[in-house]
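Worked example 3. Consider a protein that binds zinc ion.
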Amino acid sequence: MENNKLICQACGNDTFSSGQIGSLTSEGNVRPIGSIMATGSPLILTFCKKCGEATSIKVAQPEKFK
Ligand SMILES: [Zn+2]
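Given these inputs, the predicted complex is written out as structure tokens:
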């Protein structure tokens, strides 16, 4: 048994998909507050394939933030 198996809290489904908000070079990234020049990092969203409930939002490149 995997102990990191995800179960959707909204509908009980256990199949998930991931997507990305923003990109390495374009808008939509999360950026350091107040920073004009920094490109920041995309966000990785993990969501239920059935109902779309997001279980995780992850900053793809946390090292960009100091
Ligand atoms: Zn669901």
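Take a moment to read the result before moving on. The chain has a mean pLDDT of 89. The two ends are 37 Å apart (CA to CA).
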